[in-house]
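note to self — DONT lose this again. spent like an hour looking for the file last time. sequence + predicted structure for the chain T wanted, 140 res
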Amino acid sequence: MSVTLHHINISAPAQTLRAVRDFYCALLDLQEGARPAFNNPGYWLYAGPHALLHLTQRSESHCRSTQRQHSTLDHVAFACSDLPALRQRLADMQCAFREVQIAALCDQQGQVVIPAQIQLFLQDPGGNQIELNFELRQAA
């Protein structure tokens, strides 16, 4: 069996959802695209041909009543390229972020399993924490 990430769903009231849509389109160049005719409004945001983010409109009361009291989900991470351009976008958007550099992870034979990375941590307008990963050799 193989597993890959299919999509992430963010559910919020209409005004917040529009801000979330605009945020991800501006930051990650996602494009709003086709979405099935569900009963509730929303948006699907595409990275190329893949609908990576599903945004679903919910009422304020529904969002409060369905929040998980003890969720363990901390953040969602995206692999990205062009760190200088993304830093500039964040500055233009006046979006605060925290930057961390991590060393390469090697196996017992010294082979790189995970290359050195720069990670940017920030929050979207809905309060969801996201991580943007850049391989260090690509980030320079």
